[in-house]
Amino acid sequence: MCGTTVQETPRNTNSSPGCSCCGPAQHSEVNIQTTTPAATESEYLVNGMTCGGCASGVSREIGRLDGVGDVQVSLVPGGTSKITVRSTGPLSPEAVRAAVANAGYELAGSK
Questions:
Q1: Is residue 14 packed enough to be buried (19+ CB in 10 Å), middle (13-18) or exposed (0-12)?
Q2: In a domain, 95, yes or no
Q3: Cα dist. 101→77, 85, 94, 107 in Å?
Q4: CATH code of the domain in which 60 resides
Q5: Rounded distance between C-alpha atoms, residue 50 and residue 7, angstroms
Q6: Quick one: DSSP state of residue 90?
Q7: Measured distance CA(106)–CA(61) in Å, rounded
Q8: Distance between CA atoms of residues 55 and 78, nearest Å
């Protein structure tokens, strides 16, 4: 299991676009830590996540990849969210893309 942190950044305070899994977007934070040392940090961009449930699903899928020790999501509901992954070595871009797709989203890019 990976370490997961979800930090939500409001995109628009005038609307609260929910998602099909949990209704209106709300502030939520998930923080699960492990003792796995992380040597590599990578950042990825994902569009369309709207809540902590969405972010947890993406974090869970990325956390299943070999070598992943921690996943942090800076959630921008309905916008482009940043995912920071700490791992014991470089991750295959194809593996990360597939993990995000398994959660129902598309990778928008990497930093």
A1: exposed
A2: yes
A3: 18, 16, 10, 8
A4: 3.30.70.100
A5: 12
A6: P
A7: 13
A8: 12
pLDDT digits (tens, 9 = 90+) for 57-70: 999 999 999 999 99
Q: Is residue 13 situated within a structural domain? A: no
Give pLDDT tens digits for 49-101.
Answer: 999 999 999 999 999 999 999 999 999 999 999 999 999 999 999 999 999 99
Structural domain including 79 reads 3-8+30-110
22 found inside a domain: no
Give pLDDT, residue 93. 94
pTM: 0.68
Residue at token pair 């398994």 = 102
Measured distance CA(25)–CA(8) in Å, rounded: 10
Whether 76 maps to a domain, the answer reads: yes
- Count how many domains the chain has: 1
Sorting pLDDT into bands at 50, 70 and 90, what band is 110? Answer: confident
Which token pair is 56?
A: 């947890």
Average per-residue pLDDT in the chain? 81
